[in-house]
């Protein structure tokens, strides 16, 4: 019997960010392994024309929750969606709901965040710092609370090369930042943002670091733990391999490369690609929830959920495997044939951006104009290159994260729990995982049917022929222009033609002799 699964039975669990990538997998695993849990409260806001109830309905009816419905047929009754918006200081939760949350919650998993790299500092502070502070305040009023698990990121201290399982202070106190966001106007915030984030690359990593400081400062008597995952990717094993539902991290770039838009990236092939599957992160999170509640460690423990020090894979290896999978299962209606150059040199990368990205986009837009359609490729390409430039920071560096607490926790688990809540990344076969990841992107993100693979392969063959034709035409035009203008080019041309002629005559003569 799994001790962790048994621990969650009968519990009332509060999850923030349950509609997000990680939150969905967390809920799924909880329902599948502990179908006897009492209730999962989720804080949800209406979005994209859907009410909170419609959003929950959609999640529960998705492919991800297929197995849950068999194990826990009354899952609809065990999920309580509470209207909440973390942009508001009191989360806009109504009185009755708040009362229920305060009096019943046993465990909190705080996953909600803005993960956009370029978010305005005011919004990033509100979501990643102030909302965390508010939630801690709520938690301090929950008499039945056993553990508060805060999800941070391994990159909250990405300005350091070696990162220990400790909270590193930021120069300006989070409380001062929160206060200043209330009275500074947007223009001044824009001006001071680069100074505040310092040597971090974006507001996301900075505000996640501030969020950790808030957790440390306002934990009071709560039983708290922090989990720091690195780059979270598609599922490895559970509930099935390759599930992914958003463009964050590598997923968007896999699509861009598979569709032939992205053909080169400024990345260091030997830099460690510190990916962790989302089910691994969720397993660790649930194990940490159990350990924190049952063993009540004296201080706030931080757990790194990373792969680089235990089972490293680098971007070069990952890129090759992604391309190899495109060969087997190409994406449909690609713009160009998939190809990926990894270069760490800025000038070479700018050259490839001009030749492999901007030029084809301009030519394609020219073709669209000629055929009476609206040009759009240059715009798409500009947005893609902007996205890539934001991710470049993470693919040109390697970090070392110590994992003593994570390894300690692994040794505390029973063999059964090590199996059911497996977070041992040493068992991960990267080539297999990356292949499943790419196939998952094709199936679950692009919603492409595997039956369309032969047609997709045919399309790539057509693109290859167009590519050869285009290059030949380009060469002939350039050559023709050169011959018209330069005596030297004409001499070279006559030399090549007469050489070919002699070469062919030499072979024709002996063959005629034989006959
Ligand atoms: C063979 C090659 C193989 C390649 C493999 C190499 C992989 C390298 C991957 C490196 C990943 C490093 C990630 C590091 C993560 C740190 C971990 C965390 O804690 S943080 C957690 C991780 N957090 C993140 O990863 C957040 C990163 N994302 C962002 O911050 C924002 O989306 C944005 C600022 C990039 C774009 O904002 P903005 O333009 O205002 O608006 P929108 O957001 O609305 O999207 C607009 C357009 O961009 C599109 N698109 C979106 N994402 C991607 C993508 N990743 N990619 C491509 N495209 C992407 C989107 O489809 C849309 O297209 P369209 O409608 O125009 O056609
Ligand atoms: N994905 C990754 O690579 C990594 C993620 N992390 C951390 O893991 C956690 C989960 O990330 P992930 O699942 O990928 O992120 P997602 O962007 O997929 O999910 C974010 C969640 O936060 C919710 N949220 C955002 N704003 C609000 C708001 N104003 N009110 C209520 N809810 C809100 C979203 O709700 P809605 O659906 O309504 O937008 C969504 O449920 C985050 O804390 C992130 O920092 C850490 C390392 C890597």
From TrEMBL:
MF terms in GO: alcohol-forming long-chain fatty acyl-CoA reductase activity; alcohol-forming very long-chain fatty acyl-CoA reductase activity
Catalysed reactions, as listed in the record: 18-methylnonadecanoyl-CoA + 2 NADPH + 2 H(+) = 18-methylnonadecan-1-ol + 2 NADP(+) + CoA; docosanoyl-CoA + 2 NADPH + 2 H(+) = docosan-1-ol + 2 NADP(+) + CoA; triacontanoyl-CoA + 2 NADPH + 2 H(+) = triacontan-1-ol + 2 NADP(+) + CoA; tetracosanoyl-CoA + 2 NADPH + 2 H(+) = tetracosan-1-ol + 2 NADP(+) + CoA
Taxon lineage: Eukaryota, Metazoa, Chordata, Craniata, Vertebrata
UniProt KW rRNA-binding keyword: no
Transmembrane segments: 466-483, 492-509
Any Pfam family: NAD_binding_4
Keyword annotations from UniProtKB, A to Z: Lipid biosynthesis, Lipid metabolism, Membrane, NADP, Oxidoreductase, Peroxisome, Transmembrane, Transmembrane helix
Biological process, per Gene Ontology: long-chain fatty-acyl-CoA metabolic process; wax biosynthetic process
Originating species: Neovison vison
Residue ranges annotated for the Thioester reductase (TE) domain, each copy included: 15-284
Protein name stated in the entry: Fatty acyl-CoA reductase
């Amino acid at each position: 019997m799994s001790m962790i699964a048994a621990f969650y039975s009968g519990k009332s669990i509060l999850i923030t960010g349950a509609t997000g990538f990680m939150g969905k997998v967390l809920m799924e695993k909880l329902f599948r392994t502990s179908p006897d849990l009492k209730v999962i409260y989720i804080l949800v806001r209406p979005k994209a024309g859907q009410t909170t109830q419609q959003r929950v309905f959609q999640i529960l009816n998705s492919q991800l929750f297929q197995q849950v419905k068999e194990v826990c047929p009354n899952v609809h009754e065990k999920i309580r969606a509470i209207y909440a918006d973390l942009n508001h200081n009191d989360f806009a939760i109504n009185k009755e709901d708040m009362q229920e949350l305060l009096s019943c919650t046993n465990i909190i998993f705080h996953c909600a965040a803005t993960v956009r790299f370029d978010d305005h500092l005011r919004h990033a502070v509100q979501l990643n710092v102030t909302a965390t502070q508010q939630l801690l305040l709520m938690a301090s009023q929950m008499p039945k609370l056993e553990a508060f698990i805060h999800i941070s990121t391994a990159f909250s201290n990405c300005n350091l090369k070696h990162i220990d399982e400790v909270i590193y202070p930021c120069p300006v106190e989070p409380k001062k930042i929160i206060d200043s966001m209330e009275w500074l106007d947007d223009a001044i915030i824009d001006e001071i943002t680069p100074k505040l984030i310092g040597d971090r690359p974006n507001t996301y990593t900075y505000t996640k670091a501030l969020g950790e400081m808030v957790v440390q400062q306002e934990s009071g008597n709560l039983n708290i733990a922090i989990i720091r995952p690195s780059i979270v990717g598609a599922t490895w094993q559970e509930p099935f391999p390759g599930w992914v539902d958003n463009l964050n991290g590598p997923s968007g770039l896999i699509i861009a490369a598979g569709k032939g838009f992205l053909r080169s990236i400024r990345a260091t092939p030997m830099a460690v690609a510190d990916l962790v599957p989302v089910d691994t992160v969720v397993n660790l999170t649930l194990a940490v929830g159990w350990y924190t509640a049952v063993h009540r460690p004296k201080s706030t423990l931080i757990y790194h959920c990373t792969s680089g020090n235990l089972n490293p894979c680098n971007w070069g290896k990952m890129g090759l495997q992604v391309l190899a999978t495109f060969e087997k299962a190409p994406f449909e209606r690609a713009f160009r044939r998939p190809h990926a150059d990894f270069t760490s040199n800025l000038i070479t990368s700018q050259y490839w951006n001009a030749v492999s990205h901007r030029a084809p986009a301009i030519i394609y837009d020219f073709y669209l104009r000629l055929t009476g359609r609206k040009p759009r490729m240059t715009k798409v390409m500009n947005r893609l290159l902007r996205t890539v430039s934001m991710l470049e920071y993470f693919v040109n560096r390697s970090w070392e994260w110590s994992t003593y607490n994570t390894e300690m926790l692994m040794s505390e688990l029973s063999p059964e729990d090590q199996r059911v809540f497996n977070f041992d990344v040493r068992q991960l076969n990267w080539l297999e995982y990356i292949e499943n990841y790419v196939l998952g992107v094709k199936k679950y993100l692009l919603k492409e049917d595997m039956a369309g693979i032969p047609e997709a392969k045919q399309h790539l063959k057509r693109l290859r022929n167009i590519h050869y034709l285009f290059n030949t035409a380009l060469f002939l035009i350039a050559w023709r222009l050169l011959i018209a203008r330069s005596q030297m080019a004409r001499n070279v041309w006559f030399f090549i033609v007469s050489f070919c002629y002699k070469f062919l005559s030499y072979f024709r003569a002996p063959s005629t002799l034989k006959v």
